[in-house]
Write a structure and sequence with these properties.
Low-confidence stretches: none
Radius of gyration: 17 Å
CATH class: Alpha Beta
Helix content: 25-40%
Strand order of the largest sheet: 1-2-6-5-4-3-7-8-9
Number of strands: 9
Largest sheet: 9 strands, mixed
Strand content: 15-25%
CATH architecture: 3-Layer(aba) Sandwich
Structural class: alpha/beta
Mean pLDDT: 91
Shape: globular
CATH topology: Rossmann fold
Number of domains: 1
Length: 248
């Protein structure tokens, strides 16, 4: 007998959320969320609390002019960490400004986010209110969502292409990139966005000393895109997802 779908619930902002406990729950979670599969997927990883407003303003054109327009045009889902901070906040706010219909799926650790009647009452972070769906995964610390991001992306994409975009970030972002590489997913590294992204770009140029970064660079899956060029990111996304870009 087939397992019953997981129960979903609505958050205050209208997003649909599902809590999972094992990797086997993820396909049923996607079904409970009502997300059509397969579909192309953009995974966005990078800076969270360490990003200041000035950093976000500099990165915003990449969301407004490349990431979300490509996802909208291709019917792709965008997957990220789902909290109200850094690149995740910027993605949600960009989606709201554009009035886009893109499925924006947050994969967040249940023990660190505020969810009515589910999460702990204090010492937690807010979920980004403009996301459309959430998969809440086991754990109590930042970074435990990293392998789940890859699993959710793989489940959504199925045989269709997916790509990871790296903007800024720290050690957790490097782990996210390692998981993407292990899943054979192309990674677009936004050089000039700061921290982990710039370190990965340096490794691609042979200028980093960290062996882990060199190993990721040697995978052949990483490509550098300059921070100030949304059109270049759009072209790289189209190439990674096997799509033709708009006429210039």
């Amino acid at each position: 007998m087939a397992e019953a779908p997981l129960a979903s619930f609505r958050l205050d902002g209208g997003a649909v959320a599902v809590t999972v406990t094992t990797p086997a729950d993820v396909p049923r979670a996607i079904d409970a969320l009502g997300l059509d599969v397969p579909r192309p997927v953009l995974v966005v990883v990078g800076g969270a609390g360490a990003l200041v407003d000035g950093d976000l303003a500099r990165l915003q054109p990449l969301f407004d002019e490349a990431l979300l327009p490509v996802a909208d045009r291709l019917g792709a889902a965008v997957v990220d960490g789902g909290t109200r901070s850094g690149v995740m906040r910027a993605l949600g706010e960009s989606r709201a400004r554009a009035g886009a219909t893109v499925a924006l799926v947050g994969v967040a650790v249940a023990g660190i986010v505020r969810v009515p009647d589910v999460g702990p009452p204090s010492d937690v972070v807010e979920l980004e209110p403009h996301h459309t769906h959430f998969v809440l995964v086991p754990g109590t610390t930042w970074g435990e969502e990293s392998p789940w991001l890859t699993l959710v992306a793989r489940t959504l994409a199925g045989p269709l292409p997916s790509v990871t975009v790296v903007l800024n970030g720290g050690e957790i972002t490097v782990s996210d990139v390692a998981n993407s590489v292990a899943a054979d997913r192309p990674v677009l590294v936004v050089d000039g966005s700061g921290r982990a992204a710039d370190d990965l770009a340096a490794a691609l140029n042979g200028a980093a000393s960290d062996e882990r970064l060199h190993a990721l660079a040697a995978s052949g899956l990483l490509t550098v895109v300059p921070v100030g060029q949304p059109a270049a990111l759009e072209r790289a996304l189209d190439a990674a997802l096997g799509a033709e870009g708009p006429d210039e």
